[in-house]
Amino acid sequence: MLLLSIETSCDETAAAVVRDGRTILSNVVATQIRDHAEYGGVVPEIASRKHLEMIPVVIAEALRGADVSIDGIEGVAVTQGPGLAGALLVGISLAKAIAFARGIPIVGVNHIEGHLSAIFLERPVEFPFVALAVSGGHTHLYRVDGIGRYTTLGQTLDDAAGEAFDKVAKLLGLPYPGGVEVDRLAAAGDPERIPFPRPLLHDGSYNFSFSGLKTAVLTHLKKHPDYSSEQNLRDICASFQRAVCDVLVAKTFQAAEAAGVERVVMAGGVACNSALRRAMTAAAARRGMELSIPAPPLCSDNAAMIAVPGDYYLTRGIRGDLSLDALVSWPL
Length: 332
Ligand code: KG4
Ligand code: ZN
What we know:
Layout: E1 2-7, E2 12-19, E3 23-31, H1 33-37, H2 44-66, E4 75-81, H3 85-102, E5 106-110, H4 111-117, E6 129-134, E7 139-146, E8 149-155, H5 161-171, H6 178-186, H7 211-223, H8 230-259, E9 263-267, H9 274-287, E10 290-292, H10 296-299, H11 304-315
Parallel strand pairs: 1-4, 4-5, 6-9, 9-10
Antiparallel strand pairs: 1-2, 2-3, 6-7, 7-8
Zinc ion is lined by residues 111, 115, 135, 268-269, 301.
Keywords: Acyltransferase, Cytoplasm, Iron, Metal-binding, Transferase, tRNA processing
Domain Gcp-like: 23-307
Subcellular location: Cytoplasm
């Protein structure tokens, strides 16, 4: 099946053309980062306006890149939630218009399910696996027994890991979004210089908590106002990043061991983090487990990942209709 998929849940306007939920013919992402940067975070109103402006351009580009006309598209998959209501509605409205005008089926896809499925665009992974979805809005551990078959093992009790990266970056005066900047500075920093806490590391659950870690960085900055020195800044970034990675890695593999599962998948924007990728790879190797992490462009928000569950559902006759509406909060 040749699918057009659309993703507008946050600050990326994205469209892709994907064959059989596996082969990417095009995957176009127009980021709004520069539009939100001066506000230090995503402004929902600006996000909706930018999506409205960019979505026709991005879809045209996706069709052109795939060398197909709209007549060749056999179905539409669109992110239905979770995300910003106004942002989601732009993608959903256009997806419904295309489905109605072309007389093709439409299906609403959960954004997190998209992240968890992105790996299938690169290679097959056998079920079951334990998946860590780690992004700006989510830090969740799931047992995955198949597409559509998810059991939540744990989740953040407060901030998502990406949110913690972005907030700490803001405290350090780094530009938005901070995750990439912290990653870059941490590369030349000492990750053992500052013993930041490892929240909930030994609590026996698979839950996370990152807001205390952010406060620990703030407390450190108040006590040591000399962080503007480049090396101190790098050491803070590296030490903070190490604390986040230690907790994410430990809990993911504890969960996999407890579930008796041999395979681990990591996905979401924070899965682009170079130290986290290295730490996960080393931990999997130590345990002889199979680890799969998509390439960075498939970890951060994109539309191709939405086509994977989209194709699965549509080929099984599971579809939405023109009453399809945005779901701001939608647990998997
Ligand atoms: O999945 P994503 O693109 O959007 C959401 O669904 O949230 O994730 C965005 C998050 C942001 O918080 C961003 O700072 C973080 O992923 N991020 C990173 C890196 N690249 C993106 N965090 C740490 N290191 C990175 N290299
Ligand atoms: Zn995302």
